[in-house]
Amino acid sequence: MSDQTTGRIPSQDAQALSGGPGGPGNTPGPERSPLELLVEVHTRLVDTISGFEKITEKATPEYRPVAEDFLEMHRRHEAELAAQLASMGHEPQADGSIFGTVNRAVVAVRSWFEDVSDNVMDRVKQGERHLIEAYDAARESRQSIDTNAILMRHSAEIDAMMEKHEA
């Protein structure tokens, strides 16, 4: 795998090992089951809710309704997806991932130095894209018709919310 003369990994192989030019997770790895992908969507939703709870807490009065709109939508989505997972015999996790904890900490630290207002819309957009990627991956797997309908509706609602608030 390494170049005989330099001992370095050729760039193409290095990209494959690191997840490709777009970063880890952008190259195909071991195929994940539809259930695992659905659980990933739920985990990202829990993380997103955690972030929006902190954003709402720290938001300026003008931005708070925007944050509350996103938070309410994601809470609805999480509850519906948790019910779907439960109907499939899977107990949804309420904790999320380390990403959610880090996200809350970042919002809290930033709020010490600046208001949480329109200047966080870039981070909101990034977070929503991260969530949509999980929805897309789950939809592209072999989900049931009912599950796919939920995933498609949630994605459309996220897109509409981002457009409404120009995220």
TrEMBL record:
Residues 1-33 are annotated as: Disordered. InterPro entries: DUF2383 (IPR019052), Ferritin-like (IPR012347). Coiled coil: none annotated. Gene3D superfamilies: 1.20.1260.10. Residues 1-15 have a biased composition (Polar residues). Residues 38-139 form the DUF2383 domain. This is DUF2383 domain-containing protein.
